[in-house]
Design brief:
By secondary structure, the chain is an all-alpha fold. Helices cover 71% and strands 0% of the residues.
Length: 155
């Protein structure tokens, strides 16, 4: 990395403790283009598929190098933040805020793990194939979780 960037190793280690520190720095400041505009879960899936498709090389290397937790956290946080806003609009009359948070956590966890699995796969699916696969897999997941009896309906 130092050779590629044409910087001395001392300069690298002055700013970062190791390559994982670099990846953490990248993903702490990274945002997924279009995520803030998503109004539905299927749009989040489409945006994530596009992001993975455009960044497959670095995602694959990060996910298979031991920095998978950094990427997984990045995916989770990105999905959770937007998903919470979507769920709050959709289910404000049906669920308590705590239940909306719990549903969103479950969905963000499932989605982020599946996106990480796809990004770390040696076989690169086209973004249309990823979208179709994920949309089929997760179609109705939100409604299933929302209708689960363990969540109380707010009055």
């Amino acid at each position: 990395l130092c050779e590629y960037c044409k910087i001395p190793r001392q300069t690298f280690y002055y700013h970062f403790s190791d390559i994982y520190d670099v990846l953490s720095s990248i993903y702490l400041s990274e945002s997924i283009p279009g995520m803030d505009e998503a109004e539905e879960w299927n749009q989040i899936v489409k945006i994530m598929c596009d992001y993975i498709s455009k960044n497959k090389s670095i995602l694959y290397k990060a996910l298979t190098s031991g920095a998978d937790n950094v990427v997984l956290s990045f995916f989770y946080d990105s999905i959770y933040l937007r998903g919470y806003e979507i769920n709050s609009k959709l289910y404000a009359l049906r669920l308590t805020k705590a239940d909306i948070r719990e549903v969103t956590r479950l969905i963000a966890d499932i989605y982020s793990r599946e996106f990480a699995r796809l990004a770390s796969s040696k076989k690169l699916l086209r973004k249309e194939e990823m979208y179709l696969k994920l949309n089929t897999t997760f179609n109705g997941l939100v409604e299933l979780l929302v209708s689960n009896r363990r969540f109380k309906v707010s009055h």
